[in-house]
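Our preliminary data section would be incomplete without showing what the modeling component actually yields. Below, a chain of 152 amino acids is followed by its predicted structure, encoded as C-alpha cells that our downstream tools consume directly.
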Amino acid sequence: KWAELLPDEFLKRQEVCPLVYLPMGLCEPHGYISAFGLDTIKAEYICEAAAKKVGGIVAPTQGYHIHETGYHAPWLEEVLGEVNPYMTSIPPGILLHLYLYQLRAFYNAGFKAVIVISGHAGGNQEDLRLVASAFMDKFSMRIEVRADPELV
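Predicted structure:
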C-alpha cells in the first residue's frame, strides 16, 4: 500500500511495475446483512490481492462516492428518507473532480497505468469511465475502471 511504503520502497516498486490501483468505495447502510463499509472493503481487498499477484502500488482508498443519482436516488428517498447521516456520498461534480485530480496525480508521479476498482456499483462506474476516457485523450496513461460485480 502506498501509505505504508517508504520512499525508496515506493520508487523500487514503481520502477518494477508502474501500475497504480485506486480502490473506491462508499460507506452506506446495507441493512443488517453487512458493514457500512462493505463497498470500500471489497474494493480494497481486490486491489490488494491484485497488487500482491501482479505488482504495482495500491493508492490510498477514495472512500467517498456518488449515491444521489441514477436508480440510487429514488431508493434513497423511498427507503431512507431524504436525509441519511450514515453515508459518505458526495455530489457527482465534486466526486468526479476529485477523481480527475487523482488521475492527474498518478500521471505526474510517473505511473503508466491505473486500475480503478469501485466497490459501489449501479451505473456510477460509467461516469468514472467517461472521466478516464477524457483523461486518456490528452495523456498517455492507460486507465481501466471496473465495478466489482463486473469482475465476476
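The chain is about 45% helix and 15% strand. Residues 63-113+134-152 form one domain. Preliminary results of this kind motivate Aim 1 of the renewal.
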